[in-house]
Amino acid sequence: MKIIYNCFGGSHSSVTAAAIHLRILPGDKTPRDSELLSLPYFDAQVAPDHGRLRFVGIDEFGNEIYVAGKRNLGTGYEMIMRSFLRIAGINDQEVIFIDTMPYVNAWMVIGGFLSRQCGLNKVGRKIVLYGTRRAYYRFIILVGRVKQRLLKEAGRLCENNIS
What we know:
Oligomer: single chain
Helix content: 40-55%
C-alpha cells in the first residue's frame, strides 16, 4: 500500500503527519522545534516542488509513505491522481490519499504563507512551528485513524485469502 499525506504546500502538516506515521516524531507528546526542523522537507518545499510526490519512508506494516503539496486543488487532487493511476494501469485501490488540511490551524497557514510564499523564513518559521505544536495532537489522531484503516483492510485481505 502507498499512503500519500497531502496539504497545500507539502511542507508542514503533511510532513508532520507522515513523520508521526513513521514514528520519527513521538505519538504521545508534542515535539520540540528542533525535532520538527530536522524532518526531511519540513518548511523546505518551494513552488516547483508542488505536485511532486516525496518519499519519506516505509512504515511498520511495509507501506510506503509519501508527502505532496497540492496547492489549491483541494479534493480535486485525489480525483486527478486516481484518474492518472487508472490511465497508467495501476490499481488505485493500493493508494490512500490523506488530506491533512482539515487539521491545519490559522497559525500554520499564516506562518507557512510568510515562510514559503513571502520568503520571510525566520518569522514565518517561528509562527508555523508554534501552530504545528498547537495542532500536533490532531495530527496524532489523524494518523491513528489511518493506521486503524490499514489494519482493517489488512484483516479483510487475510479473510479473503483464507476463504
